[in-house]
Design brief:
The chain is mainly β. The chain has three helices and 28 strands.
Length: 323
C-alpha cells in the first residue's frame, strides 16, 4: 500500500509542475491520512500514477478489461475466470487471482481493484496490495464496464439495461438506474457519469444521484467511453470511428479509426483506440481529432490503459501489449 501512495504523491507533483495540471486545477491528494484523496478531475481521467518507464506478454484467454493501480496493471481474463496483476515496469506476472464467472471490466478505487463478472452478475473487490478477495457483491445482469467517482463504483448492467451504483467502501447497493439498450462503456467526468448504450446508438449522462441529465445520439453501436479532462470520447463499433462530444452533449465531431473500435484511453495528449477487428491501436490527437498513427498489436484488442508512460492493450487472444 505504501508504494502506491508514494507513486500517487509523485504523480501529483508531476502534474502540478506542468500545464496539464494547471489547466485542470488539481489540488494535492491526502496521503497523510492513509487514504487516497485525489480531486474529481484526477479520478475522472484516471491519473493515479507517477510515470513508469518490452512489448508483448502472455496473459490468458479472453483478456479484456484493464486498470492501472499506480504501480501495476490488472487484466481481467474473461475465459479463464481470473485476474492477473502485471508489473508495469517489466511485464512480470505478480499474481493470478480467481474472480467470478467471466470477468470483464476492471477499475481501481485508490486502494482496491474492482472486477465485473459478466456471467456471475456480481462484482469482486480485491485488495490491490495483496490480491486478497475482500468481497463479492451482486449487481444487475451481465455487468460490463466500471467507473469510480471518488467514493462509489458505477457498473453498466449490459443484460438488463441499467446502471448500478455501489459504495466503494463496503459494497452497499446505493441505487439502480435506467439506461438505454445494452449499456457498456462508462466514465466519470469529475461530476457526472456517462454511459454508452450499445444498441440504442446513444450516450447517456447521469447525475451523481442517477437522474438522467441527457441522452445523445452518437453513431452506430457505441462501445467505450473516456473523458479527456474537457470532452467525452466514444468508440463507435459499426462506424469504425470515435466521436467527441461536449459535456453539454453537443456533438463536436466524428473521426475514423480502424475496424470495430472498442476500448480507449487518454494519455494527457492523445486518445488511444483498440480496433478489435483490425488488430490494431489508433492514436488520435485529442485536440483536433486527427489520426496520428496506427500500430499493430495482438489479436482482438479490447481493453486499453495508460500507466503514466506507456499504453497497455489487452488482446482477447491472450496477450498484453505495452507501447
Amino acid at each position: 500500500m505504501e508504494r502506491r501512495f508514494i507513486s500517487f504523491c509523485a504523480a501529483v507533483a508531476y502534474f502540478l509542475s506542468g500545464s496539464f495540471a494547471s489547466s485542470q486545477n488539481m489540488p494535492l491528494g491526502n496521503p497523510d491520512t492513509g487514504a487516497v484523496s485525489p480531486n474529481p478531475n484526477q479520478i475522472a481521467i484516471l491519473h493515479w500514477y507517477a510515470a513508469n518507464q518490452v512489448t508483448q506478454f502472455t496473459t490468458a484467454a479472453g483478456s479484456s478489461g484493464l486498470a492501472f493501480d499506480g504501480a501495476n496493471i490488472w487484466v481481467a481474463n474473461y475465459s479463464a475466470n481470473n485476474v492477473m496483476e502485471i508489473n508495469a515496469s517489466d511485464g512480470a506476472l505478480i499474481r493470478t487471482v480467481t474472480a467470478g464467472i467471466n470477468p470483464f471490466g476492471v477499475a481501481f478505487d485508490g486502494a482496491n481493484i474492482w472486477v465485473s463478472n459478466f456471467h456471475g452478475n456480481s462484482l469482486t473487490k480485491l485488495q490491490a496490495s495483496t490480491g486478497s478477495v475482500l468481497g463479492t457483491f451482486p449487481v444487475g445482469a451481465n455487468p460490463a464496464n466500471l467507473a469510480f467517482d471518488g467514493a462509489n463504483i458505477w457498473v453498466s448492467d449490459f443484460g438488463n439495461n441499467t446502471v448500478t451504483k455501489i459504495s466503494a467502501r463496503d459494497g452497499a447497493l446505493l441505487g439502480t438506474f435506467a439506461a438505454g439498450n445494452n449499456p457498456n462503456g462508462i466514465a466519470f467526468d469529475g461530476t457526472n457519469i456517462w454511459v454508452a448504450n450499445e444498441f440504442s446508438d446513444t450516450v447517456m449522462k447521469l447525475s451523481p444521484g442517477g437522474a438522467i441529465l441527457g441522452q445523445f445520439n452518437v453513431g452506430q453501436q457505441p462501445w467505450g467511453v473516456v473523458f479527456d479532462g474537457k470532452h467525452i470520447w466514444v468508440t463507435l463499433q459499426n462506424s469504425n470511428a470515435v466521436c467527441e462530444i461536449a459535456l453539454d452533449g453537443a456533438f463536436l465531431g466524428i473521426f475514423p479509426v480502424g475496424e470495430g473500435p472498442r476500448g480507449l484511453a487518454f494519455d494527457g495528449t492523445y486518445i488511444w483506440v483498440a480496433n478489435n477487428v483490425s488488430g490494431t491501436v489508433t492514436r488520435v490527437n485529442a485536440g483536433d481529432g486527427t489520426q496520428q498513427r496506427t500500430f499493430p498489436v495482438g489479436g482482438l484488442p479490447q481493453g486499453v490503459a495508460f500507466d503514466g508512460a506507456s499504453i497497455w492493450v489487452a488482446n482477447q487472444t491472450g496477450t498484453l501489449n505495452k507501447m
